[in-house]
Amino acid sequence: MYVCLEKETDKLIYSNSVCPKAFILDALKNGCKEEDLEIKEVTIEEWEALVAEANKPTLQELAKKELSITDIGMIRVIEDIIDILIINKTITEADLPQLVIDKINARKNLRSEL
Fold first, then answer.
1. Could you tell me which of 7, 103, 12, 4 has the C-alpha nearest to residue 53?
2. Quick check: helix, strand or coil at residue 45?
3. pLDDT tens string 20-29
4. Is 103 helix (H, G, I), strand (E, B) or coil?
5. d(CA 53, CA 60)
6. Domain count, the chain
7. Same-domain status, 63 and 45
8. Do 47 and 64 share a domain, yes or no?
9. Are residues 51 and 64 in the same domain?
10. Distance (Å, whole) CA 53 – CA 96
11. Domain ranges, residue 18
12. Same domain for 74 and 99?
């Protein structure tokens, strides 16, 4: 098995069992510089480890996923805060943009149908 790695990071760029020269052509087409690449033959176990590492999510991807998951809960918290502010007469619906009022009412209607 042959792999094409980024020299500085050992990041897997391509892998193939037949023609390592094709890696260089593909990498050059995709904007890589030849001097930044390393072609080497690896065992199946090494290849599997490289593939597993390449498929691991980055910290940024994990943070985005976590934010996305918590966004759903935060939406409900914000709706509840707005309700409390209106009930306590801290704000009125007129203080809010119409788009916000429409979205909150649409969500309240959906919840009432559950």
1. 12
2. helix
3. 566 666 766 7
4. helix
5. 15
6. 2
7. no
8. no
9. no
10. 48
11. 2-55
12. yes
